[in-house]
Amino acid sequence: MLQFSFWDILSNLLIATQWTIVLSLIAFFCGGIVGLVLLFMRTSRIAPLEWFTKIYIEFFQGTPLLMQLFLFFFGIALFGVEVSPWMAATLALTFWTSAFLTEIWRGCVEAIPKGQWEASSSLALSYIEQMRYVILPQASRIAVAPTVGFSVQVIKGTALASIIGFVELTKAGTMLNNATFRPFLVYSLVALIYFCLCFPLSWWAKKIEGRLNVAR
Amino acid sequence: MSLVSIRDVRKSFGPNEVLKGVSLDIAKGDAVAIIGRSGSGKSTLLRCINGLETYQSGSIVADGIEVAGANTNLRELRRHVGMVFQQFNLFPHLTAAENVMLAPTVVNKVSKAEARATAAEVLAKVGLSEKMDAYPSELSGGQQQRVAIARSLAMRPKVLLCDEITSALDPELVNEVLRVVEQLAREGMTLILVTHEMRFARDVGTKLVFMHHGKVHEEGAPKEVFAAPRTPELQQFVGQVG
Amino acid sequence: MSYKLQFAELLPYWNVLLYGLVFTIVLTIVSTVVGIAVGTAGAAARTFGPGWLGRIVAVYVELIRNTPFIVQLFFIFFGLPALGLKLSETTAAFLAMVINLGAYSTEIIRAGIEAVPKGHIEAGLSLAMSKWEVLRHIVLNQAFRKIYPALSSQIIIVMLGSAVVSQISAEDLTYAANYIASRNFRNFEVYLLVALAYLLLAMLTRSLLRALGRVIFKAR
Fold first, then answer.
1. Residues of chain C neighbouring A177 (CB-CB closer than 8 A)
2. What family is it from (chain A) (predicted)?
3. Domain count, chain C
4. Which of B30, B122, B149, C23 gets the most CB atoms within 10 Å of its CB?
């Protein structure tokens, strides 16, 4: 039987951590782009667009991320397309992230006083122009803290990709545990690595939020 | 013997000394009005008397209890020393009567029925019998402050500290609160009031204290002090405010 | 699409699904009640307790909030037995849920406590109430009123997150789905149905909590 030293375990976990980071980054950025589009639709005051986003958000916020992963994994296969865990995880996490970011950002947009909308529309700006030049520059200031805060949820969310067989940090932990039978050590290390990824972001989010409160 | 005795009290917030050796004696039945500019230390002095602030040196004895540091039996002290705040600080989740009943039931373990009877009595005293079951948000500022006074009275304090209790009120609501305080003074309640109401200080107070730069700058009978301020600082202050 | 969805093949398994559904509901209710109790104690310790206790609670909160629930679950179920603490799947699931919600609710309730105006605390103190009496009678009520919506959202998030307990074979709704899928291979149908069940559960929980909030905080 292969012997695993502490450093073997740690280095294997760190290699897998790269995939956690890559998956997090893709989910966060693609989710951000989709979320931005949804934000425009959600605040457009065009009924069908608003309804679509509402149902979309309700679904992705109201069902477990794990179910969403399963649905993408098995759902795409129905179209006769070969699905890799990688693809299913990327898609599910992107859509899941976009739903939450849309809601967070909508809150920030709604925090901007009505007068800003009225003033800019009285200057003959179109809806897109209002958003682009007046509302979003102000809303983005207050959106930074909760957005950074949510990135922590995305990193933690990628852990579920392990369940559909994508080898990232958590899956690597499970595999190493099966090989070494040292669950306490392995899962402590896994938790510690997640903590090192997430805590700086949490801390940063809290710091920005605090600074914003003082500024107001 | 004085009911509240303050001896050479010093207090600093960091490098900033706000009380620079304050001494004051308050007898039973006194209505002491403390006046002075903002930042002169008058509110801090008041907060030291019931232990909301600690001080570094000197001594305060209130109703026989030495107010000093961590060993003070604050609970016992505060049962005898009531306080009314500038911002009313009514508990928003409780009705007027419940605000008044809270401390008697929790601290003195009085029965609900008995506490409610007391509440009815003290709320009548401040002229709010018909508002017993109103929530603070349903009351005007003046009414809220009167409930706050009643809330303190329900503990039957020996001394009542009033920290600028009319400063947060709209001008037309000030008098209804002052009338209640005036009545208390007439009934012989010992009062220590930090106030900006000069006329009230003169007409109702039995003693006037002018604080300046963390010290008692001048004190005496209100009418005399106002008629003939001895120090230029008080002259100037009276000239500005009055 | 050549594939035909066949929900009828799920019918024979209705009792499995029902069992899972009940398990998920009970798991959510118990961990909500106990978790909020833990959170209240934690928040009280952080705001009104001694400094050393507050720091311990802060470490607990940050450790939980910055690691995935599934890792916490695996640590409890697979890791703790190495220390001699062997837990059943069900116990481990409940424990992990309570610990998780306990940390989040500590943070939420603490924010509520800190939002109570300092003057209210001073008013309570100057009425001769002790620190703990002030906390109990004046602070907590106001704090809970303020953070009730945030706490409600967190309960729903935790309920949805509980799907993960299926991974240690705790027999919740997701476990039922996995079980059925392994029998009849109608993966997509099963997961779609169960996803909708969760959605319904989330919406129901939200309305229920809102109604409950109206009853509890009816004053004013």
1. 78
2. Belongs to the binding-protein-dependent transport system permease family. HisMQ subfamily.
3. 1
4. B149
Domain extent listing, chain B: 4-241
Q: Searching chain A, which residue's CA lies closest to the CA of residue C200?
A: A62
Query: What is the Cα–Cα distance from A203 to A166, expressed in whole angstroms?
Result: 29
Q: How far is C193 from chain B (nearest CA, A)?
A: 44
pTM: 0.88
> Which tokens go with B64?
């026989």
Which residues does chain C have within 8 Å of residue A159's beta carbon, measured at their own beta carbons?
68-71
Min Cα distance C155 → chain B (Å) is 24
Contact residues, chain A, for C195 at CB < 8 Å: 63-64, 67-68, 70-71
Number of neighbours of residue B189 by Cβ within 10 angstroms: 19
Taking the CA of residue B221 and the nearest CA in chain C, the distance in Å comes to: 29
ipTM of the complex: 0.92
Per the prediction, chain B carries an average pLDDT of: 92
Give the DSSP per-residue string, A6-57.
Answer: HHHHHHHHHHHHHHHHHHHHHHHHHHHHHHHHHHHHHTS--HHHHHHHHHHH
Enumerate the H helices of A125-182 as residue ranges: 127-129, 136-158, 169-180
Residue C202 reports pLDDT greater than 60:
yes
Q: Do B and A have ≥3 inter-chain CB pairs under 8 A?
A: no
pLDDT grade for A216, boundaries at 50, 70 and 90: very low
Q: What is the CATH number of the domain that holds A144?
A: 1.10.3720.10
Residue of A145, A42, A181 lying closest to A98 (CA atoms): A42
Give A104: exposed, middle or buried? Use CB within 10 Å, 0-12, 13-18, 19+. Answer: middle
Cα–Cα distance list, B157 to B27, B80, B188, B207, C172 (Å):
14, 4, 12, 20, 60
* Spatial distance between the Cα atoms of A65 and A53, rounded to a whole number of angstroms: 18
Residues in chain C: 220
- Render pLDDT for C50-81 as a digit per residue (tens, 0 to 9): 999 999 999 999 999 999 999 999 999 999 99
Contact A17, A77 (CB under 8 A): no
For residue B213, give the DSSP letter: T
Q: Sign of the CA dihedral A32, A35, A37, A39?
A: negative
Q: What is the pLDDT of residue C5?
A: 74
Residue C128 lies in a domain: yes
Total domains in chain A come to 1
CATH class of B4-241: alpha beta
CB pairs under 8 A between A and C: 127
Provide the token pair at B170. Answer: 């709209």
Q: List Cα–Cα distances, B170 to B86, B145, C186, in angstroms.
A: 12, 12, 71
